[in-house]
Design a protein that fits this description.
With 362 residues, this protein is an alpha/beta fold. Helix content is 33%, strand content 22%. It binds adenosine-5'-diphosphate (ADP) and magnesium ion.
């Protein structure tokens, strides 16, 4: 059953330097209880796309068009602010990279969760507090009856992220959007938080949109993956296809730059040369052509559209190269003599699944 259907979403901001086209015509679908990974380098429009689902880009003087259809609520872009507020925090909740930006430093964690609960449910403070303690326990905070009275600074980074997740769960969402939920955390804690999200998603049948710049993060968790570049989706497919038969040269670059568990975290194995284009003036033709090792002169003139890969209706790619050419190039890359070929990088880069959540077991 389709829970969320985003159709031709476009978001632009008027700035002093001109129009920033942050999201430029993306479409995707998410079924109930499924996980979609949205992956791309910094600046590709992931956060703006995610915030739009909650109607939060409206507040920033942005121009938004397209449709965001959410089961039972129609087009979220057409809702009034009051109706939207009823959806936000209830059916759809969001967690961010930096829990400190969402937790007020001067209020106890429990009090903030109580407030979140009471914002959406007509219940007493005492009952909401019981629920807050329950939620803190659910997300693996040890001794929740005591920790409920802690201030955010008294919790570790990982525990603050757990508290954020508890707050997000307070409205019993059917859709959780997690925007780089582990980017600020060290590798071990990152794996624990991903394991927690994965467990909650399964147990509660939530749909999850997991936004990250790191393909390694979604490797084990996502059912489907959408790769974003310069405000557009350039490849979308079931996760296993993205890792076994990726079609876009940009995706190949992302695969090769997955950090390993052993290596220094922010050090890329092989960063994609060049940098993403300015959203003020994206290049003509294929937006990736200035960085693409396989670009032909014509790619600077023709804009590719997202088309199904032959024989793979679920796998779509926006690339002007011939399918056969892409297959050959990927096979060459994969079989290349480099010691850190993509599969090997991948084998050491998938922290999510095998790690059990230790605080849960405790
Ligand atoms: N409020 C805003 N005003 C102007 N530009 C913005 C605003 N928010 C985001 N942008 C721009 O939109 C682009 C996409 O940003 P973002 O969605 O945050 O990327 P990502 O999350 O993929 O790193 C960036 O170029 C960013 O600078
Ligand atoms: Mg972002």
């Amino acid at each position: 059953m389709t829970l969320l259907r985003v159709e031709d979403l476009r978001v632009s901001f008027a700035t002093e330097d001109g129009t920033v086209q942050a999201v430029d015509g993306i479409s995707y679908e998410l079924q109930r209880g499924r996980t979609l990974g949205i992956v791309g380098e910094s600046g590709s429009g992931k956060t703006v796309a995610a915030l739009s689902v909650l109607g939060l880009t409206r507040l920033e003087g942005a121009t938004v068009s397209g449709h965001i259809r959410f089961e039972g609520r129609g087009d979220l872009l057409a809702l009034g602010e009051r109706e939207l507020r009823a959806v936000r925090g209830n059916e759809i909740a969001m967690i961010f990279q930096d829990p400190l930006s969402a937790l007020h430093p001067l209020y106890r964690v429990g009090a903030q969760i109580v407030e979140a609960i009471r914002a959406h449910r007509n219940t007493t403070k005492a009952k909401a507090r019981v629920r807050a303690i329950e939620l803190l326990g659910l997300v693996g905070i040890p001794d929740p009856a005591r920790r409920v009275d802690a201030y955010p600074h008294e919790l570790s980074g990982g525990q603050r992220q757990r508290a954020m997740i508890a707050m997000a769960l307070s409205g019993d969402p059917t859709l959780l959007i997690a925007d780089e939920p582990t980017t600020a955390l060290d590798v071990t804690v990152q794996a624990q938080i991903l394991a927690l999200l994965s467990r909650l998603q399964r147990e509660r049948g939530m749909a999850l949109v997991l936004v990250t710049h790191d393909l390694g993060v979604v490797a084990e968790m996502a059912d489907d993956i959408a790769v974003m570049y310069a405000g557009q989706i350039v490849e979308s497919a079931p996760a296993e296809r993205v890792f076994s038969a990726p079609e876009h040269p940009y995706t190949w670059g992302l695969l090769r730059s997955i950090p390993t568990l052993n290596g220094p975290r922010e050090e890329l194995l092989e960063p994609i040369p060049g940098s993403p284009p300015s959203p003020l003036a994206p290049p003509p033709g294929c937006r990736f052509h200035p960085r693409c090792p396989y670009a032909e002169p014509e790619h600077a003139r023709t804009e590719p559209s997202l088309e199904p890969v032959p024989g793979q209706p679920e796998h779509r790619v926006a690339c002007l190269l011939e399918h056969q050419t892409r297959r050959r190039l990927w096979q060459e890359l994969r079989d290349g003599s480099r010691g850190d070929a993509p599969e090997q990088a991948l084998a050491t880069a998938t922290p999510a699944a095998p790690v059990e959540d230790p605080e849960r077991a405790a």
